[in-house]
Design a protein that fits this description.
By secondary structure, the chain is mainly α. The chain has seven helices and no strands. The longest helix has 14 residues.
């Protein structure tokens, strides 16, 4: 009988990134404009994946606020595509019928409404 793939293996297979490579440098979480709305932050979600804590990842409100700005991916020294990961985890949570923390999503939207991107256009 073949060994069943771990949660980390399943996520790696579907996303194409090897999340075991993450060194937990925390660059992604320090640069994410919505990390303050998250409990774990992007690097924490990756750590939970590394520990194969599927339910904790899929139930985490942290997989929902990502707006795919790609800042985390740009600063990642391992070139992990974190926005693609977050999108996949949301899909997986929906497919597996995991409940969504509506209070956390509402909190995110309140924070997002106050977000003002810096004007660094040089004009």
């Amino acid at each position: 009988m073949a060994d069943r793939p771990t949660f980390c293996d399943r996520v790696t297979q579907r996303c194409g990134d090897d999340f075991k490579r993450c060194s937990q440098c925390v660059n992604c979480s320090t640069q994410c404009p919505f990390a303050t709305a998250m409990r774990h932050g992007p690097n924490g979600i990756i750590r939970l994946i590394q520990y194969n804590l599927a339910l904790e990842v899929l139930e985490s409100p942290d997989i929902w606020p990502c707006i795919h700005c790609r800042v985390c991916a740009i600063v990642c020294p391992m070139a992990i595509d974190i926005p693609a990961l977050m999108a996949f985890l949301r899909e997986m949570a929906i497919e597996e019928g995991v409940g969504i923390d509506e209070k956390a999503i509402a909190r995110f939207h309140r924070l997002a409404a106050t977000f003002k991107p810096s004007d660094d256009t040089g004009d």
